[in-house]
Design brief:
By secondary structure, the chain is mainly alpha-helical. It has one domain: ABC transporter involved in vitamin B12 uptake, BtuC, CATH 1.10.3470.10. Helix content is 78%, strand content 1%. Strands 1-2 form a two-stranded antiparallel ribbon. The model has no long low-confidence stretch (mean pLDDT 83).
């Protein structure tokens, strides 16, 4: 166990630098790629202030906000997944699979259904209200999961994933119920959004999400040592002075907040929180002070790649980025399921 936790510790700085470089390269490619490709020369001219008005609009008002949004959402969902996998001690845990994303999505669908007229008239304010609405739904889902999994004075981590899968189905049914009662335009918009989409990103969405990520990621990193201890067993954690129930609650709240605000602006992006922590652990072992930052970089990299693919796969139309991630993540989830059963 100790070997698994500590493996590749000397390679950690290399992987962080490599992750940062790959992220910059992929972002650079993504900003030039789309229905209307922009050459390297045109891109550099635009950055230096000599570009055409059309290139300025495309780069600074459409593609750069979208890339920044993908980075922030990738950071948040990946770290949320890493925390949930450690809390539940289950390699299959993910905010989408556990129903947290569905809870946030259900709250957003209710908000759209009942307050759609007000939302249209106060569109600028709705951008900042939506993360709060999504958080309420995500926290409600997490609370129900926690209460049901609570047994004999403590939470059984193995039960949390099973309860979460059930809650995911329940909230998804509620989402469908309200969707079919919406007008066609709202139905189509929420359908695409729930599939996972960052196509409508603007700088306002980036500003709405940024404070949450800036505050919550350092808290998750600060709790890295606690996550390492919780991965062992409750008796050991209590023996070294960890208040297991209290710490688990706090970590669940951090994971739920990260997932909730990311769902509010990025939709129901599933499997990203599953894939990124697994890749990070394969590279640097299981110690969370390494897993958390590397998971964040991997999550952002995967989401930008998926978004770029979604823009060019059926151009000029676009696939929701969540579908591209599901194509990658679903087979890996099945592989993990079979491996875990084995």
């Amino acid at each position: 166990m100790l070997h698994v936790l500590r493996k590749n510790r000397h390679c950690f700085p290399f992987y962080i630098i490599l992750g940062l470089l790959l992220l910059l390269i992929v972002a650079f490619i993504s900003v030039q790629t789309g229905y209307r490709d922009i050459s390297f020369l045109s891109f550099m001219q635009t950055i230096l202030g000599n570009g055409t008005a059309e290139n300025v609009l495309t780069i600074f008002h459409f593609r750069l906000p979208r890339i920044c949004m993908a980075i922030l959402v990738g950071f948040g969902i990946a770290v949320s997944g890493a925390i949930l996998q450690s809390i539940t001690k289950n390699a299959l845990a993910d905010p989408g699979i556990m129903g947290i994303n569905a809870g946030a999505g259900f709250a957003i669908v209710l908000y759209t259904f009942f307050l759609q007229g007000w939302m249209v008239s106060k569109a600028w304010l709705a951008v900042f209200v939506m993360p709060l609405i999504a958080l309420i739904g995500a926290l409600l889902a997490a609370l129900i999961i926690y209460v049901i999994a609570y047994k004999s004075g403590h939470v059984a981590p193995s039960h949390m994933l099973l309860v979460g899968i059930g809650m995911n189905a329940a909230f998804s049914a509620g989402i469908i119920f309200f969707q079919i009662r919406m007008d066609p335009n709202d139905f189509t918009r929420t359908l695409v959004w729930l599939a996972g989409s960052i196509w409508g990103s603007t700088w306002t969405y980036v500003y709405a999400l940024l404070p949450w990520i800036v505050v919550l990621l350092p808290i998750a990193f600060y709790k890295a040592r606690v996550l390492d201890i919780l991965m062992l067993n409750d008796i050991t954690a209590i023996g070294v002075g960890i208040t297991v129930t209290k710490e688990r609650k706090q970590l669940i709240i951090v994971a739920v907040l990260l997932a909730g605000v990311c769902v509010a602006v990025g939709g129901g992006i599933t499997f990203l929180g599953l894939l990124a922590p697994h890749i990070a652990k394969k590279l640097v072992g299981g110690l969370h002070f390494r897993v958390i930052p590397l998971s964040a970089f991997v999550g952002a990299l995967l989401l930008i790649l998926a978004d770029t693919i979604s823009r060019i796969m059926i151009a000029p139309a676009e696939l929701p980025v969540g579908i591209v991630l599901a194509i990658i993540g679903a087979p890996y989830f099945i592989y993990l399921l079979v491996k875990t059963r084995g």
